[in-house]
Amino acid sequence: YAALKSSGEVDSLTIDGFYSALGQRIITPEGEDKYKETDLKITDSDSETTKNAYYEKIKSIFQKYREEGMGDEIDILGEGLLDYSNTKQNTLKAGELLLISEAYTKFGEEIMQIEVPRLVRKQHLKLANGAHNLSTSVLNISKVINDPLVGLSGVSQYEEYSANFVSAVEEIETILGI
Q1: DSSP per residue over the chain, as a string?
Q2: 20 to 30 A from 120, CA-CA: which of 7, 58, 68, 95?
């Protein structure tokens, strides 16, 4: 598309054909759950003390990886695409996106090591798998300029996976009464 546009050979028929072909090639596969309920360290206590300790631990882990860039991926992508659109220079900070992808992976691994109150086990699992799937989509997003199909697939995946991730957090907070 970029080559056609720069040569001035882009008309509505070409654009329609491009979007049709692109739509057929971009697939949003279901995220594969890495973690199963048997991987959880479930505590039988659902006391207020246990619930509060769990929530504080999750919050602390989240803050740790937030400081490593988790959550900044869309800003980085937007800046990189805007620069590329204006300058045709690849300024996308793919290295930063790779670090963010890794942060999501580590976040999921670390929260799987804590004790989980039985009443939030399903939501905790959803959160850990959401982090794993976000890691994959951010990794794909990092390739958007050099491999647009993989990158756009990552963007498509990201929308679904981030919604699941946020939903898991909201569900945990609701159940815990936070």
Answers
A1: -HHHHHHT---HHHHHHHHHHHHHH---PPPPP---GGGSEEES---HHHHHHHHHHHHHHHHHHHTTTTT-HHHHHHHHHHHHHHHS-----HHHHHHHHHHHHHHHHHHTTSEEEGGGHHHHHHHHHHHHHHHHHHHHHTTTTTSHHHHHHHHHHHHHHHHHHHHHHHHHHHHHT-
A2: 68
**Residue 122: partners with Cβ closer than 8 Å, 6 or more residues away:** 37
**Is residue 130 within 8 Å of residue 165, measured between CB atoms?**
yes
What single letter denotes the amino acid at residue 108?
Answer: G
The model's pLDDT over 129-147, given as tens digits with 9 standing for 90+, comes to 999 999 999 999 888 877 8
**C-alpha distances in Å from residue 44, one per residue of 33, 36, 41, 91:** 24, 18, 10, 50
Give the HSE-up count for residue 59: Cα atoms under 13 Å, Cβ half-sphere: 11
Q: Specify the pTM.
A: 0.79
> What is the distance between the alpha carbons of residues 166 and 130, in angstroms, rounded to a whole number?
9
Round to whole Å and give the CA distance between 89 and 146.
11
Q: How far apart are CA 94 and CA 73, in angstroms?
A: 10
